[in-house]
Amino acid sequence: MQERYRTVARAGVHEIEINKSRFICSLAPAATEREAQDVIQRVRKEHPTASHNCFAYVIGADGGVQKASDDGEPGGTAGVPMLQMLVRREVRYVVAVVTRYYGGVKLGAGGLIRAYGGAVGEALDTLGTVVRQRFRLVTITVDHQRAGKLENDLRATGRAVRDVRYAEDVTIEVGLPEADVEAFRGWLADTTAGTAVLVLGGEAYQDA
Q1: Count of alpha carbons within 13 Å of 140, Cβ hemisphere only?
Q2: Taking the CA of residue 50 as centre, how many other CA atoms within 13 Å lie in the half-sphere pointing to its CB?
Q3: What is the pTM (predicted TM-score) of this model?
Q4: Could you give the CA distance from residue 6 to residue 187 in angstroms, rounded to a whole number?
Q5: Over the chain, what is the mean pLDDT?
Q6: Rg of the chain, C-alpha, whole Å
Q7: What Å distances lie between residue 202 and 38, 63, 122, 150, 166, CA to CA?
């Protein structure tokens, strides 16, 4: 698995105008191809009278799934440059839809390539990106007496506390880089005088 990947910070829209044509880029995070297709369909419904709704998406931390569509523009002038921009910026789990309202002036193949790729690039600049790091999920069970101090210590030392649940005992879920797990095990034993129970869980990604 990839240790880290970059993705769009938030969903949003950015518009540019070139020779009277409007290019509206909708960017959104997408965990799966189904989510990406849902975004594409939503944008198409929002812009039913647009000349084109071209799209590109990259799914997977390794960028393993990549698709693009020119949606009626000349072959290779829309979806491909959009996809190339996503790949060049190394963003993953993201879908871009560029909606074009034709303004009456033909841009030519080169102009279209610059317009569609540029719309995606400007949208990424506007909305920003975040890096997500692979973490091992760890569940700690501790008594109520030590729970508050332990949670404070975890946060003070920069550990990513994901969840805290109070029941007969207190369970705290933490995300750790894989390389830190054994050192953390020792730190936890020292901090709680050996009273906390640590259980390793699965893997996930979270903001680095």
Answers
A1: 32
A2: 22
A3: 0.75
A4: 30
A5: 94
A6: 23
A7: 28, 21, 36, 22, 22
